[in-house]
Write a structure and sequence with these properties.
The complex is a heterodimer of chains A (270) and B (342). In chain A, 32% of the residues lie in helices and 23% in strands. Chain A is an alpha/beta fold. Chain B has 342 residues and is mainly alpha-helical. Helices cover 75% and strands 2% of the residues of chain B. Chain B is built from 17 helices and four strands. In chain B, α6 packs parallel to α11 and α8 (110-138) runs antiparallel to α14 (233-259). Chain B starts with a helix and ends with a helix. Classes of the chains: A alpha/beta (270), B mainly alpha (342). Chain A binds chain B through residues 78, 84, 86, 89-95, 99, 103-106, 108, 111-114, 116, 135-139, 141, 143, 145-146, 148-149, 178, 180-181, and chain B through 1-3, 5-6, 9-10, 13-14, 16, 21, 25, 209-215, 217-218, 221-222, 224-226, 228-231, 284, 288-289, 341-342.
Chain lengths: 270, 342
């Protein structure tokens, strides 16, 4: 498997608290990685390191497409193609669809005058292809505040895809969504795979992560408790193991040790 | 959001024609024009002798720009989810700068003094506006408090500099500047009305057709996501404050030139009418939405109220309560509209 993002020996301590301990983590090209873990497991700390918001402790190594990245800042992460889709903060509710799609990256000439026609046409095209809005009720001029939760996530994901993000990080995208809306949102995540891009899907609801992820990584108390390709475990087996993890702090079943996955394995058991 | 809400949102609109779509998009502008026509019809009915003659419209075209020139750019500040209470003081502060520079040349070359005073006036206004922006953005002080402070500061400074003495501006009328700012085009249209139209077009274009304007909307709507998407919201906010400062100084010299006299305490009277124009015009006090056209129309409604109620036979003391009422009602309507959308 080609690695898009490879992170080795990532530790992060905040004062006395070790949020992450010698974590190895990677995302393959065109791979959807589900990142599971309880509150405080270190999911958001890991994501904030990937997006350049936090710097890891010394000794960490980050590779992007095989190239060493020395200092990953927020600007650098965006530049190389890492986009985060945040749950609530992604969209400007009172603005039209096209203004949201092109937020911060408006098409304009050198005098800063907007090319509204081009943005509107492009939004129209994206609506029909990527977003699947076929209803005549939705136009590029529609105000996104009137969209449902799943549609809003779709707009945010489409925006990231349109701007050539290679790795899209979805931070709890299904939180607060109804069943049908969750379904819509998961369809968009599947769309990332079809577009040939990669994603990290963070959730604590295994039911949402399992259907769309190629590989699932479980974090527990700052370390990687286990990871497996989806084909290796059935949904029920996964539930069993997560329950055991919560109870005993150990993910592995003694009589069945999972094989390392990918090159580099990355089990990182501290 | 559940499916019931979704159905309610999408089913009826599916049949919507292009015309209805336009009507919804421009609902606020259409509403404000309707309100203007309604008030006009009321005054025509109550005071036909006044409102059937050109004089009243001539007077409105001459005096409304005194604050419409500030209300139009102030709309940008309110859309960016900030407020400015200092523009009325900056109006006088710009003229104080004019005063100081003009005095330097009044004995030697008064005409040059007028032109240099004009430049000093605009520069002083721009810098005062920029200072508001810096205090709000860099120090993180809420703009309501920051500009309340600078408002008192500048009006005080004006009194200190001028010693509360006014300045006769007959000399301005000897220069082309007078005709440019406040001359009578064709003898019937005050130039300041033309300037207001120019402001309307320029600021509308800035807001709706440029990247800067797009970022003004985003900074007021969801500043967090705007920043995450690379919008430099702090710079946008500083700029809109600076633009209001510049416009306030311009309004100051327009008013003083028209009256041929600079009153150091003159600006204070325009605070309420300017704010009322912005809010009546449909700009949301919560940021993110608003229209320049709405502010433009609303400023003429606001300006017509005082002569209207006097001509209709009531006391002018009603003006202030009506302005206050208009501000509260328009802001409340915005709150209701917003709750319905959320």
């Amino acid at each position: 498997m080609d690695c898009l993002l490879q992170m080795k020996d990532i530790s992060k301590t905040f004062g006395e608290v070790a949020a992450l301990r010698h974590v190895n983590f990677e995302v393959g090209a065109n791979e959807i990685v589900g990142l599971l873990g309880d509150n405080g497991a270190g999911k958001s700390t890991l994501v904030k390191i990937i997006t350049g918001y936090h710097q890891p402790d010394p000794g960490a190594q980050v590779y992007w497409k095989g190239q060493r990245v020395e200092h990953l800042s927020v600007a650098r992460a965006r530049e190389i193609g890492i986009e985060v889709v945040y749950q609530e903060r992604a969209l400007a509710d009172l603005q039209s669809l096209w203004r949201n799609i092109f937020m911060g990256r408006e098409l304009s000439n050198r005098w800063g005058i907007l090319d509204i026609k081009a943005m509107s046409d492009e939004t129209n095209r994206l609506m029909q292809t990527a977003m699947g809005f076929t209803s005549a009720a939705v136009s590029p001029e529609s105000i996104v505040g009137t969209f449902s939760g799943g549609e809003r996530q779709g707009v945010a994901i489409t925006r990231a895809l349109y701007f050539e993000a290679e790795l899209i990080i979805l931070d709890e995208p299904t939180m607060g969504l109804s069943l049908t809306e969750t379904k819509k949102c998961l369809d968009f995540v599947a769309g990332i795979k079809q577009a040939g891009k990669s994603a990290i899907f963070i959730d604590h609801n295994i039911v949402h992560v399992y259907p769309v992820a190629d590989r699932i990584v479980v974090l527990d108390r700052g370390r990687v408790a286990g990871q497996f390709m989806k084909g290796e475990l059935t949904f029920d087996e996964l539930i069993d193991r997560l329950t055991r993890l919560a109870r005993t702090g150990s993910f592995e079943n003694n009589r069945h040790a999972p094989s390392p996955v990918g090159d580099g394995g990355g089990m990182g058991r501290g | 959001m559940n499916t019931v809400t979704e159905a309610r949102l999408f089913t009826p609109t599916a049949k919507r024609s292009g015309f209805a779509g336009l009507a919804r998009r421009y609902a606020l502008q259409i509403a404000i024009v309707f309100v203007a026509l309604l008030i006009w019809a009321f005054f025509l009915w109550r005071a036909p002798s006044t409102f059937l003659r050109y004089d009243i419209y001539y007077a409105l075209m001459a005096t409304t720009p005194y604050f419409a020139l500030m209300a139009i750019p102030l709309t940008l500040v309110v859309i960016a989810k900030e407020i400015d209470l200092s523009f009325a003081s900056i109006m006088a502060w710009g003229m104080a700068a004019f005063d100081v520079v003009f005095q330097l040349f009044s004995k030697t070359n008064p005409h040059l003094g007028v032109w240099l005073g004009f430049i000093a006036c605009l520069l002083a206004g721009f810098l005062a506006g920029l200072l508001n922006g810096i205090i709000v953005v860099r120090l993180g002080i809420p703009s309501l408090v920051a500009t309340l402070g600078t408002s008192f500061f500048w009006s005080g400074i004006v009194l200190v500099i001028t010693n509360a003495q006014g300045l006769g501006l007959a000399v301005v009328a000897e220069t082309p500047l007078y005709n440019i700012l406040v001359g009578r085009v064709g003898g019937v249209i005050p130039a300041q009305f033309i300037w207001t139209i120019v402001f309307l077009i320029v600021v509308w274009f800035l807001l709706n057709r440029t990247k800067f304007g797009a970022h003004v909307y985003l900074s007021g709507d969801n500043v967090e996501s705007a920043k995450l998407m690379g919008v430099n919201a702090p710079r946008i906010k500083m700029l809109v404050f600076a633009i209001v400062g510049l416009a306030a100084a311009f309004a100051g010299i327009v008013e003083s030139s028209d009256l041929k006299f600079f009153w150091p305490t003159g600006g204070a009277g325009f605070l309420l009418s300017t704010l009322a124009s912005v809010f009546l015009g449909g700009t949301s006090v919560f940021g993110g939405t608003g229209t320049i056209f709405g502010t433009f129309v609303a400023s003429f409604i606001i300006a017509a109220i005082q002569p209207g109620i006097v001509a209709a036979g009531w006391t002018a003391y009603w003006t202030q309560p009506i302005y206050g009422f208009i501000i509260v009602i328009s802001v409340s309507l915005q709150a209701l509209l917003r709750r319905r959308l959320a």
